[in-house]
Structure formats: structure tokens, C-alpha cells
Amino acid sequence: MERARKLANRAILRRLVSNSKHHQPSYKSSRYVSSLSPSVVPGGNNVVKVHNFNSRSLVQFIGSRSISIEALKPRDTFPRRHNSATPEEQSKMADFVGFNSLDSLIDATVPKSIKIDKMELPIFDEGLTEAQMLEHMKDLASKNKIFKSFIGMGYYNTFVPPVILRNIMENPGWYTQYTPYQAEISQGRLESLLNFQTMITDLTGLPMSNASLLDEGTAAAEAMAMCNNIQKGKKKTFVIASNCHPQTIDVCQTRADGFDLKVVVSDVKDIDYKSGDVCGVLVQYPGTEGEILDYEDFIKNAHANGVKVVMASDLLALIMLKPPGELGADIVVGSAQRFGVPMGYGGPHAAFLATSQEYKRMMPGRIIGVSVDSSGKPALRMAMQTREQHIRRDKATSNICTAQALLANMAAMYAVYHGPEGLKTIAQRVHGLAGTFAAGLKKLGTVEVQGLPFFDTVKVKCSDAKAIADAAYKSEMNLRIVDQNTITVSFDETTTLEDVDKLFEVFAGGKPVTFTAASLAPEVQNLIPSGLVRESPFLSHSIFNSYHTEHELLRYIHRLQSKDLSLCHSMIPLGSCTMKLNATTEMMPVTWPAFADLHPFAPTEQAAGYQEMFKNLGEMLCTITGFDSFSLQPNAGAAGEYAGLMVIRAYHLSRGDHPSNVCIIPVSAHGTNPASAAMCGMKIVAVTYPSTHGVYEEGIDEICKIIHDNGGQVYMDGANMNAQVGLTSPGFIGADVCHLNLHKTFCIPHGGGGPGMGPIGVKKHLAPFLPSHPVVSTGGIPAPDQSQPLGTISAAPWGSALILPISYTYIAMMGSKGLTDASKIAILNANYMAKRLEKHYPVLFRGVNGTVAHEFIVDLRGFKNTAGIEPEDVAKRLMDYGFHGPTMSWPVPGTLMIEPTESESKAELDRFCDTLISIREEIALIEKGKADIHNNVLKGAPHPPSLLMADVWTKPYSREYAAYPAAWLKTAKFWPTTGRVDNVYGDRNLTCTLLPVSQMAEEAAEATA
């Protein structure tokens, strides 16, 4: 009987498996359904492979054991890997907070008036598994066609050294770091960014540089704003030479509108300053069509008329060309993309801005400076502009918050790896290939080569530019058509002699070519005029002359990495910054050549995979946010703020709403909000409500209605979307436009300070005003009637397109339920931590039912009176426990804002809570007089090995207590590499480039004297 029963059960199993062929799992994007093989079911000594399992079958039997459908589902589902709390932990944590379930906590926390019933994504509603996602991304990648690019225009193919690709770009020890606001646990990336600044100052010939901007176009716009500020707003015309890249011109024109500046575009030879109203002039060096002009007399004339000169330059060209600083330029901008950073269909890339010491206080963005620590030893820190928006708000020099730190680090390492001689070899080779091509065209005699000198771009006059470009297209080469009779051909590091030969065949028009590039190359001379040849040295510091083998560079990279705390080590609980898991599956497609090697101005049919992803992503973001259309162009959160406000501005102008220029902003808003509004020409009125205090505002929908009833529009900052996804949405609440920090809620990693992405969603009536682009047609997704675009926001049509796959894969793998659960668990985690800490620290601001949202604020203000302790002391002591500090003194001075995110485990939440409780006990020792109020373990923090191992120890507490305040640290300890960095010394003695080792030692000695 037993044997017969087993045989019968096996027959049932076979029948169910057979039937399942006609009942595949239901996905709304059916193309990407994978079978569930090789799922295996044990049955005694037998193994049955189950393919295409019927999800409607409930139970299957093998022997006497029943197996549920859940046991046969794939194991690589993503939400359970991202949302860390298990169902059992969720129940216990909810109970600890005072609720019988997670859902009851959510119901008590999210106001009913703004809560949505359910979110259903239009595609990937159930969520793809990790394996299915990678297959889908491979399918999209296969639709992108990578032709050899000769387009140029500021974007070039480059070889990313594998040692940099693997150990920086693909390394979570580099890409999960936070912005280096806590210098003592950021010394590695600070050194790398200082290398970047040194590289820029050396190549441009100007002494000051920032630590990267978003792209060349917006860097030029920042320089324009600097010229306006230098002239104190008294001269309102900015002149742009027509030889600048078209995207740069358009970005500047858009930005000028908000500053009430008049932009005049003119040929270089026709520029004059007769009006007396010109604050600055922008020229390109070399020009967008390749020409090299001698600007020395031009600059002298501008200066004689009180006009500042901005030069947009190419770093590789500056290896061979006379530096702009030596020509007299006041500001130099450009992109470091071709220094080992993929084109990535437009970004992310590190831009730069260099200037003189005179204008250092007007520079936008971040500057890394040399200072000393508490022991007098050299240490690095972010200087001057450290979050200046939170202090100066609408008076800030710019709204920049996110930079491109990860890409700046890659570019800096590229220079370290190649060194000055290696870079010279690359530059000379590129120039030689361009010269060889020009010589060959002259020999062919079928077209006319421009007579001006050039570096890497050859301008060609011909009878039919389109016919030549079409012929090149058939050979899988992209050329730039300037007009019907003009083509430019740009060469780069990846170009070969064989590529030049293929070009000869194209330009020969089918006629035989009797020579080769190799045969012509020996005859080609340096085509740069002697007066413009670089003679000054560059990259002479030992760092750029020491690590030219892969082994040495690998060790240098890892030496810097070991100095930096990242998500590899512990949670980074920054309020409003949402430092969550950046999953490996999300990151993998970013470095695939089919996504990484595409020029942003390539024909759109070559980017079909990207375009499909943009469409899918836009539709899903519309569902998530409740909006009707999205623009993916803004390439940072603050850029999204600016773009959203400019959309509102354009809307009002189109309706004749004059003067609708007042922007009401809560006092607790991110500092970039008023800075962005000021850039749009708006007048800022501060109000106290609504707040950014980590709770849902009960009356937010009513506020939106009042604004609408009075003819206004509502802009919502998307920094706190992690408490909204699947539970409510900006569009449902009543907002008209919102930017999303994809590097927060949607998993693009922070990269040590960037990259970021800040796409904006809008309601239907605002869709016609979304950003456009002068080179590639763009707009909203889904495509709206874009009849009145506000202009161009970023240099590339779709911003930093290369990192969009990260957010796309996150959303597609999580599915509707996974995303909603993420918001719920983020709220649960915050409430659990707040409950654990409330007996030790006052928790400010709770909702009407006593709960917080996804973040909360603990009040430290009382400790200043009772123990002399400031928030900074707590943040520095947290380093000794292996943690990064929460957001300090914002939005309320004297507090810490903590956001745990959904991807942190309960064990990690407890470890952090235990740490803060332990620190509270250390404060209590001061309050009780058992520890010195001036010389205690918090004031002495952090404690690096150099301090702990010193011959003399004068602290009133033990070395062991300083180093190991918690038991778990004996097993795994992250060590700060410096003592507390002296901020005041660093600003008073501002140095933003590498110093010789001997000089650093001398300055350290002076500091301690």
C-alpha cells in the first residue's frame, strides 16, 4: 500500500508539472518571465526538476511530506534582501513601540487624509527576481548600439583603467561613502579629492579649484554667476562666444533668466564691450569645432574694459596647450570625463572650476583644504563652503549640494596612474591621430580641411555633410554634422590607426585610398602654434609620480579606502540623507559597455535600450509620485529643485501672472531650497509651517489647497520620499511638482559626495514647460505637449543617464508591495529607535498619535549647560564606536536627526542605540563630576591609533576606554585616522592643493608650537 501511495503521489506531481506548462507565472512584462528551473524537490532518493511551476497549484506531495507553493518559488527575490526586518522582528518591534502590528503603526502614523489605498506599478508590479532583472537589463543593453564615436563636443571615449574600474567604480568601499562632512573618518577620499584639485590647478594654471561640479555646462553657468557677483550685480550682460558647445550656451541662457542677466552670443572676433554693461565673457579653448585661438590679447582687452574672462577648457588639450591661467583667464571650467570616466550617455562626470585666490569666497561647491588635527598633525577637511546653504540660504553663492566626488576620484586616480609623462603620451597620440587624419584628407583632395590649428578635432568643409555622415554610419561610426557643408571629426584615447583608415574610405566616397594612416603618421608634425605650446610643468608632486604600476596603484587605492568609513562598515544614520542599501544587482549594469560607452548625442535609434528604460522608469515614477510626466534631465537634487521652480516660473510667465515671484519656504527646509528659489529670481518669505521635523503634517493637503485657491503652485522637496512611497504621494497630497533624490530613496549610492540625480515630476498643466535640449530632442516621460520648455538644465539630455539603471532595477525588483513595505519598515525602524532612546534623550516632534515618520530628532541642547557637550562631541565620539554621526544641528540647532532606513537590520539598529545610550552614560559621568568637563572622552574624541599609541598619555581616562568603549569593538574596529580636525585653522590658512611632505611637516610643527 505504501509503495502504491508513493507512486500515485508521484503521478500527481508529474501531472501538475505537465499542467504548469500552460500556467506560467503572471508578470505584466511577460517578455522577462523565466522558468523556475532548476528548482528541485527532494523525494527520498528521487529528485524532480520543476519547470514553469503553476502558481495556482496549492499543494504537492512527495511521499508523506507536503510542500507548499512558497517552497518552490525562486530564492533570489529581492525585497527580502533589501528590507532587513523579518516578519517576526517586525511584530516584536511594533509591539515594543506599542502597536499590535506593523500596519496598525502605519495607520496611526500616516494621516488618513493623505493615505492612498494601494500603489500598483504599471509594469513589474510583482517585482522581478535578481536573475530576471539581470536578464532584462541584458536585453535592454543589447538594444543599444555602440558605434565608434567621433562626435566630440565635450564627450570622448576613454580607457577606464581596470584597476580603477574594479577598485573604485565597482567598489562599495568607495561608492557607498557619504559626503566627507566628518573629516576624521574621511581622510582617504579627502586626499583623493585634494589630488583632483591639484590636478586641476596644475593643468589650468590657476591656484584655486573646487572638488568637482556637476557637468561642464552647469560649471560655466556657475562661472557666469560668479562674474555677476564679482561685479556686485551692477553689470547685467554676459557674453558667450559662439565657439562654445551648444549645450553650454543653452544652460547659461536658462540660468541667466533667473539672475535677470542678458546673454549675448557672438563670434569671438565680433565681441565688444561698448555698452559698459558686460560682467563677463565665456570662450572655449579649444573651440567646439576644434579650433585653437590665441586669447592673450582678447583677455587683455576684456580686462581693460573691466570684464572677467571665463574659459571652458579640455583637460587633455591642456597637457599640450598653454594654460588658461598663463593667458590671463579669471575662471576656467570644464569636464574631467576623458580622464578615465565613461561617457555613459551623458554622465555622471566630474566638472571643475578653477580661479584665483581673489575669488575664493565666491566659488561654488566644495573645496578640500589642508588643516591640522588635535595633535598638530596634517589633516584634510572640507573648507569654507561646508553646507553653506544651511547658513546663508538665499544668500548662498550657489545651490550646489551634490557634487561628482566618485567621478572626481576616478579622474584623479587616472592622473595618478598615468602621471605627467603618461598623460603627455596620450595627448600627443590623440593630437597625432587628428593630424594624420587631416593630412590624409588633404591628400585625398575630396574635401577642405580648416586652416586653423587644432588639438583633437578636425573641421571639414564638404559639399554634402549628410552623405558623408551617412556613409560613416554604415561603417558604424558617428560624425558630427555642424551644418549641411560642415563636419567635425574628434579623436580620443581609444582611436586607432585602423579607425583613421576607415575614415579615409568614407571620405574617399568609394574611390580607392592609395595610402594608410600608418604611412602618413611619420610625416605629421605638431600643429599647435609655438606661442601656445605648454612649457610649464604639471603634476610634479610625488603622488603623481609614484604609482604607475597596477600593484602600486592598487595598494594606494586601498590605503586611502581603509581611512574611510562607508556602508561596508556600519549604518550611516543621517537624517534626510537616506543612506540605504546599494544592492550589487542594481550596480552591475552600470559598467556594462553597452550602457557605459554611448555618446549622449549619438542618434537616438542607437540608444533604444536606454530609451525603453527611460520610458519604463518615467511611467513607474509617475505612479509612485502621482504625477503625469517626468524629466530625467536634472543631475542632482538641488538641480531638480531649481528645475522644478523654473517650471513654475515658466508656467506663471506663460499666463501673464505678473509678478508671481514670491516663494514661501518653511524655515526648517533644506538650505538648498531658498538658494534654488533665489537662483530663479524669486523673493523668499520664510514661514514656520509645514516643517521638516520627521513627522507627517496633518494639514498638508489643506495647505496645498489654500495655495491653489490663491493662484499659486506647490513645489515639494523629495528628500523625504522614503516615508511616502506606496503610502501617499506628492501628487495625491496636492503638489504640482517635486524632485526625487534618486541617490536617497531610490538607491543610487552617494559615492563619497556624489553622483546624484534629481529628476522632476509634474502635473499635466506643467508638462509643456519641462526642460529641453539644443542637440537631442527630449522632454517629459511620458512625452507631453512640450510647447514652452523652460530651457536646458544640464549639459546632457537625460542628465547622468549611466546611473539611472540603479534606480530602475531597484523599483523593478522591489515591485509595488516591496516598495510599500520599504516605507513601512523605514517608519517602523525609526519608531523603534526613538522608543529605545527616549528614556535617555528627549525626542523632539511627534505626530498626533505619538509616532514619528522615517526619521526623528533627539535633543542635545541641555547637555551644553549640564556637561559642556555639543552635538559635534557626540558625533566625534560615535567614531570611536565605529559609527558615522547623524545629521547635526539641522533642522534644529543643537540636535541630531536620525534616519535608519529600511535596509538596516534590527541588530544594527540595536547596536547604534546601544552606542548612543553608552555615550549618554559618558555624559552623565561629566554631569556627576566624575569626568572633567573640559578633558573627557567626548571632548577628546575621536581617538586614532597615533594618539592611543603615543609614548605619553595625559588623558584622565584610560587608553582602552577611549579605544574600546563597547565589547563588540574588540572583534571588529574601524579606526579614525586623525584626531579632531581644526576647522578654524584650516580656514585661516586655506590651502587647497597638495603640499610637499616637508612643507606639511613644517606647518604642523608651527601649529603645535
From TrEMBL:
ATP-binding recorded as keyword: no
Glycine dehydrogenase C-terminal domain segment(s): 822-943
Gene3D superfamilies: Aspartate Aminotransferase, domain 1 (3.90.1150.10), Type I PLP-dependent aspartate aminotransferase-like (Major domain) (3.40.640.10)
Keywords annotated in UniProt: Mitochondrion, Oxidoreductase, Pyridoxal phosphate, Transit peptide
Pfam families the UniProt entry points to: GcvP2_C, GDC-P
Subcellular location: Mitochondrion
Enzyme Commission designation: 1.4.4.2
Key word Transit peptide present: yes
UniProt cross-references to SUPFAM superfamilies, sorted A to Z: PLP-dependent transferases (SSF53383)
Catalysed reactions listed for this entry: N(6)-[(R)-lipoyl]-L-lysyl-[glycine-cleavage complex H protein] + glycine + H(+) = N(6)-[(R)-S(8)-aminomethyldihydrolipoyl]-L-lysyl-[glycine-cleavage complex H protein] + CO2
Domain Glycine cleavage system P-protein N-terminal residues, every copy: 81-507
InterPro entries for this protein: GcvP (IPR003437), GDC-P_C (IPR049316), GDC-P_N (IPR049315), GDC_P (IPR020581), PyrdxlP-dep_Trfase (IPR015424), PyrdxlP-dep_Trfase_major (IPR015421), PyrdxlP-dep_Trfase_small (IPR015422)
Co-factor requirement: pyridoxal 5'-phosphate
Entry similarity comment: Belongs to the GcvP family.
Record-linked HAMAP family: GcvP
Subunit structure: Homodimer. The glycine cleavage system is composed of four proteins: P, T, L and H.
Summary of the function given for this chain in its UniProt record: The glycine cleavage system catalyzes the degradation of glycine.
Record protein name field: Glycine cleavage system P protein
Species of provenance: Rehmannia glutinosa (Chinese foxglove)
